[in-house]
TrEMBL record:
This is Maleylpyruvate isomerase N-terminal domain-containing protein. InterPro entries: DinB/YfiT-like, MDMPI_metal-binding. It comes from Micromonospora vulcania. It holds the Pfam family MDMPI_N. Residues 11-155 form the Mycothiol-dependent maleylpyruvate isomerase metal-binding domain. The lineage of its organism: Bacteria, Bacillati, Actinomycetota, Actinomycetes, Micromonosporales. It comes from the Bacteria.
Length: 225
């Protein structure tokens, strides 16, 4: 398999989100998403915060060694914890502070490309610190890509004609989910990548057939929230 440049995957992930929200009117930006309680503008603000965090993190390198990688990083964020609920409420209030939802799109359009340029310029052998962890730069970029891909899928269910996330970015997200699954588990053969991502993150529930194929590994789901 051809190696994926982490900055290229992140660029594809962020470009994909831009393609979803660009040219959308305020009514579309107020449509519901797969994230409970969040409209499109709210969710875009959440991803915008990730892009802003990327700019700060990549400009603040630290010494290694890493204490987490692109998979183990996610184990510190169990689905549905109290911190997630507080963050969800903060995002809703912060997004509502914009005069119009389109203001979030404009800020995203300025910030996301800057984060991608910073990712391309970062030392791939370097380390950064974020969310209480030290990660290698490529692993940090993979965490951003995985989150962007999942939220791309969250943005689109009520947006007709929205494009899917790009294949390089999806491959990174799927690799993350594979890593979070138990070593003995194999995802059901009938799942395509999108179904895997939606079920691995609890967006779509497992069916009885899924549970039969997964066996004991079904208890690991959702792999992240």
């Amino acid at each position: 398999m051809t190696a994926i440049r982490p900055d290229e995957a992140l660029a594809q992930a962020y470009d994909g989100i831009t393609a979803v929200v660009a040219e959308r009117d305020d009514a579309d930006l107020l449509r519901p998403t797969r994230c409970r309680g969040w409209v499109v503008a709210d969710l875009l603000f959440h991803v915008l915060c990730d892009a802003q965090r990327a700019l700060v993190t990549l400009a603040s390198p630290v010494d290694g060694p890493a204490d987490a990688d692109d998979v183990s990083y996610w184990r510190g964020f169990p689905p549905g914890d109290d911190d997630s609920a507080r963050h969800a409420w903060w995002v809703r209030r912060s997004a509502a502070a914009f005069e119009r939802p389109g203001g979030i799109v404009r800020l995203w359009a300025d910030t996301a490309p800057a984060a991608v340029r910073a990712a391309a310029a970062a030392d791939p052998a370097g380390h950064v610190t974020t969310q209480g962890h030290v990660l290698r730069v490529p692993d940090f970029l993979a965490t951003l890509t995985t989150e962007a891909v999942v939220h791309h899928l969250d943005l689109t269910p009520d947006l007709p004609g929205a494009p899917p996330p790009g294949p390089l970015a999806v491959r990174v997200a799927v690799t993350t989910m594979d890593g979070l699954l138990s070593d003995e588990a194999v995802r059901p053969t009938g799942w395509d990548d999108q179904e895997f991502l939606l079920k691995a993150t609890g967006r779509v529930p497992l069916t009885d057939r899924d549970r039969l194929e997964l066996g004991e590994s079904a208890g690991w789901f959702p792999l992240l929230g």
